[in-house]
Design a protein that fits this description.
Two copies of one chain form a homodimer.
Chain A (H helix, E strand, L loop, with lengths): L3 E7 L27 H7 L10 E6 L3 H7 L8 E4 L4 H16 L4 E6 L2 E3 L2 H16 L3 E6 L9 E9 L2 E8 L4 H10 L2 E11 H11 L1 H13 L5 H11 L5 H4 L7 E5 L4 E3 L3 H6 L9 E3 L2 E4 L5 E4 L5 E5 L4 E6 L2 E6 L6 H10 L7
Parallel strand pairs in A: 1-2, 1-4, 2-3, 6-10, 12-14, 13-15, 14-16
Antiparallel strand pairs in A: 4-9, 5-11, 6-9, 7-8, 7-9, 8-10, 16-17
Helix pairs in contact in A: 3-6, 3-7, 6-7, 7-8
Chain lengths: ~350, ~350
């Protein structure tokens, strides 16, 4: 597709997949769904609709080397590093000025690097629909049909159909449970997965309207593109940018947003339990990887990354056991979302160096 | 006490405490109850009633060095090694001829090395009672008041009182559950803990009556004591001995056995769940040892023996997690008795070297 690009957002850091993920080894460079790393799967999912020359990735400077290694299928300069993380509005704005500089007619899809998608062909078909609308100047988002009244996602209120897409009546922030139940019962609300498609021109115009300070910084950055001043300028401008998401800062206020309803199955890979849900499993529902042995164990994820160490599970049901050379996690899957508590306890007990 | 000795039986091997115990590192040399190793706790429990010169230990040759290291409070020649394990009848017989050779009036208590005893003073008081009866020529056993209808122990049927002890009407082998319930309801049955007290003379006379082949071998061994022929003779005689326990081979058939009812709390340290039950615990019922961190975790045992590795537990209730440099076990406590299945699976999957 001419003038179509994709920008993978791989800026996160953190320990929600500790002990595999660490402060300096973020989840997107880990093979949490099995096989390739999340960021690489996100890129590969776009082929053959896009070619490597059409795919970019934005990440944090301290992770750029790791991400470049994972994305050796892209030209090295397609991994763009931000001096510091400033949330998605800044990342999207930077991508927009960069792509417009390379191709004034650039359109791009924004794809977070930590998603599960069951069927790349369906994703590509939905993105084609979105690109077609974006080519007309629209800001397009992809809505996910809710699997339940989740309070972990924002919602998109579906409006009238416009051709092969719908209008979005409104963006709704993460609701409480009662509200979420109402949304799901109505059938008119979809999850906001943070997947967007637009032209660089359109999103920059909207940023100009909604976040003029960011727009001003982006103009300064734009003037330095292709020059040796770029790193300095980026550092200066990022230092003054507020942290704000593209959803909250721009999309919720945009007057006209269109939505493609996803035909693919989707999940946010946000914790060990989500990662486990989408990995290949054996007949007992287990994912066993590395040197391990399981007896009378069901619905469990046992990962061992140290070939000189064996992990044995007996009688586990619905557990996560992750062993690395310097740290091991054991928890029931339904507690995996609370890993932050473990990280705090490790800090408190003086084990920061394992984080 | 004159002529009183103790013989600690530390012959076991195996993997019921894998991954801490290994084929070549048996449970008795491990600090499974916290603090000192099981064998050393068994010895220390006898002081000050006995002095080190009165305490002996019988173990297997391949474990003798480990056991001697654990028992550096005893003279080195007090750790007697059998060339091969031949169950308790042979071990008791060997101890008897050895002690009678050193002291013709020797009496000795037989104490397995893998028991929990809550109060050494009470154990010593009970042993004093038993030694007094043994001095009169009796074969004495110690009965444990059952905590429930266990099918894991043999039972002693209590007969009429004789002074400060009781007659044992009969030894009963490990019963089925219904039978065990009847035993416990009657109030007349106690657990056979395998703790005995007798004179060397009396038990050798009983072995002569019940196991004449063993008695014949013991006579050959006795003639070699104090000579350089001993190792060769022991190896030859042990090679032909059958495996038989002192309970089954001798005590069940003995015409007159007396019993002391234990005033101490007792348990067989036979699995991680038993070991865990008798270790010091924190307010949440946890035993956390080594580099570990636990969050929202109750009634669990988390052991880490590698100071360079941290084990984190989140949301566990009633679990065992044991981490060593080359192997980790995770299981619910109530499955810990099934560890043999794990060992088989490890063998099947080619991890024998961790056993």
């Amino acid at each position: 597709m001419d003038h179509a690009y994709a920008v993978v957002l791989a800026g996160g850091s953190g320990t929600r997949f500790w002990p595999l993920s660490r402060l300096r080894r973020p989840k997107q460079v880990l093979p949490l769904l099995g096989g390739a790393s999340l960021v690489r799967q996100t890129v590969e999912r776009l082929f053959p609709m896009l070619e490597p020359r059409q795919v970019f990735c934005i990440t944090a400077r301290e992770q750029a080397d790791l991400v470049r290694r994972e994305l050796d299928l892209l030209p090295p300069d397609h991994v763009i590093d931000e001096p510091v993380g400033r949330d998605t509005a800044a990342a999207v704005g930077l991508a927009a000025v960069f792509l417009r500089w390379r191709d004034p007619r650039a359109m791009f899809a924004v794809l977070p690097a930590d998603h599960f998608v069951d069927d790349p062909a369906r994703l590509q078909a939905d993105l084609r629909t979105a690109f077609a609308a974006a080519a007309e100047g629209a800001l397009v988002t992809v809505g996910i049909r809710p699997r339940g009244p989740s309070t972990a996602y924002g919602y998109l209120q579906r409006g009238p159909r416009e051709g092969s897409v719908h209008r979005v009546l409104r963006f709704r922030e993460k609701p409480d449970l009662e509200t979420a139940k109402g949304y799901v019962a109505s059938g008119d609300f979809l999850w906001n997965a943070g997947i967007f498609v637009w032209s660089a021109e359109s999103i920059l115009a909207e940023i100009e309207r909604r976040l003029p300070a960011l727009a001003a910084s982006l103009k300064v950055v734009e003037s330095a593109l292709g020059t040796s001043r770029l790193p300095t300028v980026l550092a200066e401008e990022y230092a003054r940018l507020p942290r704000i998401s593209i959803d909250y800062g721009v999309m919720e206020k945009a007057s006209r947003v269109l939505m493609v309803e996803a035909a693919f199955a989707w999940d946010d890979v946000g914790s060990w339990s989500a990662a486990s849900a989408h990995r290949p499993r054996d007949a007992a529902g287990n994912t066993l990887e590395g040197a391990c042995a399981a007896v009378d164990t069901r619905d469990s994820l046992v990962l061992s990354t140290d070939p000189k160490h064996v992990v044995a599970a007996l009688g586990l049901d619905g557990f996560v056991v992750v062993h690395t050379p310097d740290a091991t996690l054991v928890c029931p899957k339904n507690r995996a979302d609370e890993l932050k508590k473990v990280v705090e306890e490790l800090r408190r007990r003086g084990f920061e160096k394992t984080l």
